[in-house]
Write a structure and sequence with these properties.
This protein is α/β, with parallel strands linked by helices. It has eleven helices and 13 strands. The protein is globular and about 55 Å long.
Length: about 290
């Protein structure tokens, strides 16, 4: 368990107690395509975005074997762009969802299928060991209402074999987190947004990273802080609403890691410039209404 303080101004987090990552990372979902149902993107642009992200200080990349379609896959882009990998680069991946005929990951792997998914990620990323593997639960449904112990035990076995360094859980509620922790240590929880304050606080107290996916809400209008409040604070600070949203998200807890994703170099530069944004208490109070 990593020691935690209440210092939300720290730019780093000790993932699993032994991997220091910058709290502002990069999500790879939009590299191959804008949405699961959308067209694929130019792989050359994806390679350029990844290389620039690392140049700008990103050392935590979140990906999954189901991010892509046809000949364009996020894991292939990561391997092409970044091998040989820097020693401090942490790559997290997720297993569990299975894409349907439309490419949307609406299915869910059984316990017997998880080893093959982990081995596929090792192969496509060109790694001997994965830094962090999440069990993503529930397909596209909301958290809860199913047991995770059998599936998480499979990942724990792979961790014991040395194929995985740390384990995480995604799209889970507090009961499922407790069930998982009874099987093996949990280094990170990845849930949608950061609206579950109780679960986020539980993670903070246990030294577990809390990693909201869709950190901008899938769009500013559906994000956790409200478009009008974001626009007002952004205008006052000379920043963009996206930058203010990311900065406010990081300020909610020292255990929060942000992984905004993009397939655009311009948006990447905008997102990572958030590191230079200093929100004051009055800004945060206004954003939270």
């Amino acid at each position: 368990m990593s020691p935690m303080t209440n210092d939300t101004t720290s730019n780093t987090f000790s993932l699993g107690g032994d991997l220091t990552v910058n709290r502002l990372g990069f999500g790879a979902m939009r590299l191959a395509m804008g949405t699961f149902a959308g067209p694929t993107r130019d792989p050359g642009t994806g390679v350029a975005v990844l290389r620039r992200a690392v140049e700008l200080g990103v050392n935590h990349i979140d990906t999954a074997g189901f991010y892509g379609r046809d000949a364009v896959w996020a894991n292939d882009l990561i391997r092409t762009a970044l091998t040989p990998y820097r020693h401090d680069l942490v790559i997290a991946t997720k297993v569990g969802p299975l894409p349907g005929p439309d490419g949307v990951p609406s299915g869910q792997a059984t316990a017997d299928q998880l080893r093959g998914l982990v081995e596929a990620d090792l192969r496509t990323l060109g790694l001997d060991r994965l830094d962090l593997v999440y069990l993503r639960v529930g397909g596209m449904t909301a958290p809860g209402n199913e047991s995770i112990a059998e599936r998480f035990a499979v990942l724990a076995e792979l961790r014991a074999e040395g194929l995985i360094r740390h384990l995480g859980l995604s799209n889970v509620d507090s009961a499922q987190l407790a069930e998982g922790r009874a099987v093996a240590p949990v280094a990170a929880v990845q849930n949608r947004h950061s609206r579950d304050a109780a679960l986020r606080a539980e993670c903070e107290g246990a030294g577990i990273a809390y990693v909201p996916y869709f950190p901008l809400g899938g769009g500013i209008d559906s994000g956790p802080f409200g478009a009008q409040r974001l626009a007002k604070v952004a205008a006052r600070l000379g920043a963009t609403p996206a930058q203010v949203s990311i900065a406010a998200l990081l300020a909610t807890s020292p255990s929060v890691l942000a992984i905004p994703g993009t397939g655009s170099l311009d948006h990447l530069e905008e997102n990572l410039a958030t590191n230079d944004l200093d929100l004051q208490d009055e800004d945060l109070a206004e954003l939270r209404g």
